[in-house]
Fold this sequence. Notes:
The chain is of the alpha/beta class. The protein folds into two domains: 8-105, no CATH class; 110-255, NAD(P)-binding Rossmann-like Domain (Rossmann fold), CATH 3.40.50.720. The chain contains six helices and eleven strands. The protein has helices spanning 5-16, 57-73, 118-129, 178-188, 199-211, 235-251, and strands at 21-30, 40-43, 49-52, 77-82, 97-105, 110-115, 133-137, 151-153, 168-172, 192-195, 222-223.
Amino acid sequence: MSKHKDLIKKMANLESAEEPYAIASVFSVHGSSSGKVGDKALFDDNGNRIIGYIGGGCIENRVAATAKETLVDGVPRTVDIDLDSDEMSMGIPCGGYMSVIVEPQMINPTLLIRGMGRVVEVLCQLANVLKFKVVVQTSEDEKDRYPEAERIICEPLEMDDIDFKVDYFILATHHRNDDKISCEALKKGIPYVGVVASNKKTGIITEYLLKNGISAADLKRFHAPTGLDLKSKSAEEIALSILSEIIMLKNGGTGEPMRDLDNSDQSNGEG
């Protein structure tokens, strides 16, 4: 039986609960250290150790801080700890040298799409490739068009009935009550509420929102017409512009051409 069986069980529970965590694994040790190669621990997004052991206080404090960082940007990090120079709070040298890799286990954001048609179809396809958890609320006769969705909801869905976390909400219904639904979604606290709409309809919805308790600050979460200005003409291009805006906001991007940015601050991830 694996010595990490309790840790593996805890990982499964965290995955089931959709809670982010980081795995810290010792892969190199030289000299005196309470942590050994192969030791593992899990940390939450506040840097608290959940389970496992990688060494004493001087080790855990360093790794906990790194775990917290990785769960912000999703980038794995290696922590090299010189235990002869790093001291615990009581001022006692730990001794030795060790290396720990910290790997974030991020929770895929949830995209709720309400609507039907080709734009919704392509949104599902692109969002699935981009590792979003996709939920679609649509009509019964449309449900087979969206195989990439993790969940299809065909019955009427009020905002108050949503019992799962929604990070991004797209309305592609072209219904008269888009204003009411947008208002309810903003009041529910959904971070991104986007509507596929014309400029004229956007103005009508915005006026409704302001008259029904949506503040100027909350209105910053309202995105209509949703998407970036790509001069989109086809359903495929519209879907791309919507996901482009969402990715830009999720990653803190600018939407500017890469060639116009300082190369020292920007990277497209390629070598």
